[in-house]
Amino acid sequence: MLAVVVHAPGDLRVEEVPDPVPEPDEVLLRMSFGGICGSDIAYWRSGISGTAVLKDPLILGHEVSGTIEAVGEDALAAVEAAGLGTGSAVTVHPATLVGRYRMPAEIADRTNLWPQVRYFGSAAFDPHEQGGFSTLRAVRPDQLRAVPAGVTLEHAALAEPFAVALHAVARAGDVSGRSVLVNGAGPIGALAVAAARLAGADRVVAADLSPAALEIARAMGADGTVDVGAGDALPADVDVAIEASGAPRALGGVVAAVRRGGVLVQVGNLPAGEVQASLGGIVTREIEYRGSYRFVDEISGALEAMAGGLDVSPLITHTVPLDRAVEGFEIAADRSTGSSKVLIDLR
Questions:
Q1: Are 207 and 230 in contact (CB under 8 A)?
Q2: What is the pTM of this model?
Q3: Quick one: which of 149, 141, 138, 164 has its CA closest to 63?
Q4: What mean pLDDT do residues 269-286 have?
Q5: Mean pLDDT along residues 301-328
Q6: What is the pLDDT of residues 64-89, one digit of tens each?
Q7: Most C-beta atoms within 10 A of its C-beta, which of 80, 93, 125, 290?
Q8: What crossing angle do the helices spanning 298-307 and 159-171 adopt, rounded to 10°?
Q9: Are 14 and 140 in a shared domain?
Q10: CA-only gyration radius of the chain, Å
Q11: Same domain, yes or no: 111 and 200
Q12: Where residue 319 sits, what CATH number does that domain have?
């Protein structure tokens, strides 16, 4: 089968790899679409994503959709209980919890905080966890999420990043009737705009350096936008800020935009190691600064929202066939292309 494999920094290839051989308790998927994420780009450019360092060739991709190709004998009961079968359209929860741990009671249900998690397309473990940018992929039945009627396989590939955005907004608490600033209008930021809207926010403003990104944010439901590159000022005294850019230099301004006693959620990945940021206002304004990491099972909520009519198509700016995946990465990594979410057609 064909797969998108990163071998070393700057060395990304579409190449033939062996077909997966599913275990009896696994399900074989024929992959349909995959969304290129910032972590995929990081592995390609530097061989490092967060604290994970590439050591061996890695099939990338954790934002994926596909159809069930075959079901192992020991997986059949679980698949049928989920109302699925051969040919069913699905997306995948990319996480696998590793090891036996006793979590503190107050976070026992927050599986995204499990001490060790294997994740599609991640080099965090050795051997690495291969991703889903391939013709076929074997998964456990509990990782499957049925794609509802009316949701396309293209849109289903966005369920994973949308889950990240839904989780970030949920980390802010109840945002109904509140003002929300989303700083950074890349794919996660634009989806956070939609998530805040779904959660009942009164006014949502998106800020970014890119006019093209701001246009997408408006299409996803932003009431207003701030072109930081043009020198526009962030709004004042917002109740909640979702920081989705991951740029330390932006933090001081975002902190200053949040009202006293407000909430700032950090979902954009900050650089590894020490960073310089102006954070004094967190103390003097008693801002609650909260982290947001991946998601629990909001991927199911993401699919439900799409089935309910939420249109994620404004995010999809480019689609490339599998044999041109490297070109897709180049487009996704270059904001001057106007790209937001770049999909790879894996069929």
A1: no
A2: 0.97
A3: 164
A4: 89
A5: 98
A6: 999 999 999 999 999 999 999 999 99
A7: 93
A8: 110
A9: yes
A10: 20
A11: no
A12: 3.90.180.10
Separation between Cα atoms, residue 92 and residue 76, nearest integer Å: 17
Q: Is residue 99 part of a domain?
A: yes
* Residue appearing with tokens 């979702």: 242
Q: State the amino acid at position 241 in one-letter form.
A: A
Q: Are 146 and 332 in contact (CB under 8 A)?
A: no
- Same domain for 88 and 110: yes
Residue whose tokens read 């066939």: 321
Secondary structure string (H, E, C) spanning the chain: CEEEEEEECCEEEEEECCCCCCCCCCEEEEEEEEECCHHHHHHHHHCEECCEECCCCEECCCEEEEEEEEECHHHHHHHHHCCCCCCCEEEECCEEECCCCCCCHHHCCCHHHCCCEEECCECCCCCCECCCCECEEEECHHHEEECCCCCCHHHHCCHHHHHHHHHHHHHCCCCCCCEEEEECCCHHHHHHHHHHHHCCCCEEEEEECCHHHHHHHHHCCCCEEEEHHHCCCCCCCEEEEEECCCCHHHHHHHHHHEEEEEEEEECCCCCCCCCCCCCHHHHHCCCEEEECCCCCCHHHHHHHHHHCCCCCHHHEEEEEEHHHHHHHHHHHHCHHHCCCEEEEECC
Q: pLDDT tens-digit profile of 241-271?
A: 999 999 999 999 999 999 999 999 999 998 8
Core vs surface per residue 237-270: b (16+ CB within 10 A) or e: ebbbbbbbbbbbebbebbbbbbbeebbbbbbbbb
Which of these, 126, 231, 238, 102, lies nearest to 177 by C-alpha position?
Answer: 238
Evaluate whether residue 307 is within a structural domain. no
Give the residue numbers spanning the domain of 6.
Answer: 2-158+312-345
The separation between CA 316 and the C-alpha centre of its own chain, rounded to angstroms, equals 14
**Token couple for 37:** 């994420």
Please give the structure tokens belonging to residue 97.
Answer: 């919890």
